[in-house]
Design brief:
The chain has 388 residues and is an alpha/beta fold. It is built from 12 helices and 8 strands. 49% of the residues are buried. The structure holds manganese (II) ion (MN). Belongs to the arginase family.
């Protein structure tokens, strides 16, 4: 950089006299990219001024520093995208510790070191941010916190608006796909009520310590229909509504059920096969990948990751923690192993940042899980059954 002292001061603009500082400030990493910045610039940032617009640690916190798009705008004319992150700040369907309404912002905070310009994967040597897909953060859906029925209707509508826009890269994919940042697990029901429009009924790969197919009469006590729709019954209801296929699977199950046999039978009736947490000790990561792939085949797949699938040592910040779970590395390896499946939607839910530790163990894990889900979508484009 040319020092200001090598030129007469009157030749320089006033802003450069004292210090070599640009505004808005850029992160040291981005500044050091120097002349190489353009080579690493993602499609999402092309045409922008890297000194002014690369935003790691600056600006507002979006997932992985992706651009924000007002996907829920009433206008038809918004920036196009192929994959969208959408926050679902909702936690009034929980049966234990609340707090997942702050999950979306927590997961974004956990992802703040990720950026398209520096995301070359050490395992695959690919950078899925720089592939064919334009990936954006839509912010959060506006959800009331006093009425679950209305909030889920709002979330379903948000999903429909976001997925009804024409994709950016129509030669590859016609319909944008959504990765939801939860939110308690009830939010997955709203996503599935939307995905059926474009993709039909789907196989759900459900990473969780709990089965979440409880009959509302069992979990909720049959008090009211309102109480019966919660984060432990949404898969039962999704089955009743015909949203999911009988080729679905749970992975990481270890929590007890309420009834000796009814809950297991009902789970099977809802279309699920169970892979327990301890199965990994017998068949390993690759065995679990093989089972999941065999189960869903070439159907369209929705992947839902309840962060409580991880052991509380790896994810303490969740509502219904169960000991004896998987490590973060095991989960990431299993997710990567699902490459090639037709992933039409995904979520990371039940992240309640208030219970996290100063090392941010849970939100870091959740951010990386969301990144891996995004990568699965980039690796395998899927054409919809019905266009928007
Ligand atoms: Mn769950």
């Amino acid at each position: 950089m040319l020092s200001s002292w090598t030129l007469p001061l009157f030749l320089l603009p006033a802003s450069s006299i004292a210090r070599d500082v640009v505004f808005p400030p850029v992160s040291p990493l981005q500044a050091n990219l120097g002349g190489h910045a353009s080579r690493y610039r993602s499609p999402v940032a092309s045409g922008k001024d890297p000194l002014a617009e690369f935003e790691k640690y600056s600006g507002l916190t979006t997932f992985a520093n992706l651009p924000w798009v007002h996907c829920l705008s009433p206008d038809d004319d918004v920036d196009k995208y192929d994959i969208a992150f959408l926050g679902a700040p909702f936690d009034t369907g929980t049966t234990a510790r609340p707090g997942a309404r702050f999950g979306p912002s927590g997961i974004r905070w956990g992802s703040r070191r990720m950026q398209a310009a520096a995301a070359w994967d050490p395992y695959t040597h690919e950078n899925t941010f720089l592939g064919w897909a334009r990936i954006v953060d839509c912010g959060d859906a506006p959800l009331t916190f006093l009425d679950n029925t209305v909030a889920l209707q709002q979330l379903e509508k948000a999903h429909k608006v976001v997925s009804s826009r024409t994709a950016n890269t129509t030669e590859v994919a016609d319909v944008p796909r959504i990765i939801t940042l939860g939110g308690d697990h009830t939010t997955t029901l709203a996503a599935l009520r939307s995905t059926i429009d474009h993709w039909g009924p789907v196989s759900v790969i459900h990473f969780d310590s709990h089965i979440d197919t409880w009959d509302p009469k069992v979990l909720g006590g049959g008090i009211s229909d309102y109480a019966g729709l919660n984060h432990g019954t949404f898969l039962h209801i999704a089955h009743e509504e015909g949203l999911i296929l009988n080729s679905s699977a749970h992975a990481g199950i270890r929590a007890p059920v309420i009834n000796k046999s009814y809950d297991w039978k009902n789970d099977k009736r809802c279309g699920f096969e169970i892979i327990t947490a301890r199965d990994i000790d017998k068949i390993g990561v690759s065995g679990i990948i093989d089972k999941l792939k065999a189960r869903v085949g070439d159907t369209n797949v929705y992947i839902s990751v309840d962060i409580d699938v991880l052991d509380p040592a790896y994810a303490p910040a969740t509502g219904t923690a169960e000991v004896g779970g998987w490590t973060t590395r095991e989960l990431l390896s299993i997710l990567d192993g699902l490459e090639g499946l037709n992933v039409i939607g995904a979520d990371v839910v039940e992240v309640a940042p208030i219970y996290d530790n100063p090392g941010e163990t849970t939100v870091l894990a959740a951010g990386e899980v969301a990144h891996r889900l995004m990568s699965l979508m980039v690796e395998t484009p899927v054409k919809p059954l019905r266009r928007p």
